[in-house]
Amino acid sequence: MEGGKRGEGAGPSSGGSSSAGGVGDQRPEKEKETSEKPSGVLGGVGEEEEEEEEDHDDDAKDDRLVAGFVPGPLVSLKEQIEKDKDDDSLRRWKEKLLGCLESDLNDQMEPEVKFHSIGIISDEFGEITSPLPVDESRNRHVLFTLREGSQYRLKLTFSVLHNIVSGLTYSNTVWKGGVQVDQSEGMLGTFAPQPEPYVHALDEETTPSGILARGTYSAKLKFEDDDKRCHLELEYSFEIKRAAR
Question: Would you give the distance in Å from CA 39 to the centre of its chain?
């Protein structure tokens, strides 16, 4: 009985034939097809899964590389210029990149970033510039005043000495009443020594609006390179006033 039930059940699934001979004739082909088709389908899925796993492994590897990034050893500017000096094209490229810096060709390895001034640019009053370092007597005083809801940008003028500074970044943290209310950060880039100072404006910011936004804020502006050398840490204050009507 059980064998008959299995035969009846197999009949409709084998193309509608009810004869035992038809079932027996077609089953090897069906079994062959089913044994071939799944292998192709599963093979495709397996390949996709393997590719996804490989991509995931590559992403994880990249994350580990970024997290564990270690800058290469420092080489003095003099050594960098003198290296491959017999290659005229490479020598001209280095001269174009680094300029004429004979006075700075010493064996000092550490780059130095010297900040000359900080400015505030706003459509409301144009540009206000303060020399750096800020006078200690003015360090805690209000450096500039802005209207609520206004756009502004900080502008820095600086020089790079002795060696190439790589991956110069900034962070600007703002507090009001001892509570952190904002933090912005960004990448300035990599800079080589040159006779003329660099001028760089940070990303545009918008002051908050409302009665609670008005008042005096304290802030800390910090600049670091790839090697976590801090080239400037500036504490300053600014004020936000009611918008003009």
Answer: 44
Q: For 170-202, write each residue's pLDDT tens digit.
A: 999 999 999 999 999 999 999 988 889 999 999
> What six digits make up the tokens of 187?
């990448």
Is residue 168 within 8 A of residue 227, CB to CB? The reply is no
What is the 8-class DSSP label of residue 53? H
Exposure string (b/e) for 58-81, b if CB count within 10 Å is 16 or more? eeeeeeeeeeeeeeeeeebbbebb
165-176 and 215-224 beta bridge pairing: antiparallel
What is the per-residue burial (b if ≥16 Cβ within 10 Å, else e) of 141-171?
A: eebbebbbebebebbbbbbbbbbbbbbbebe
Strand ranges for the chain from DSSP E: 112-122, 126-131, 142-147, 151-161, 165-176, 179-191, 198-201, 205-206, 215-224, 230-241
Per-residue pLDDT tens for 80-116? 666 666 767 766 666 666 655 555 556 667 889 999 9
Give Rg (Cα) of the chain.
Answer: 34
Site of tokens 């976590």 = 228
CA distance 195 to 60: 43
Residues 6 or more apart whose Cβ sits within 8 Å of residue 195:
99, 100, 101
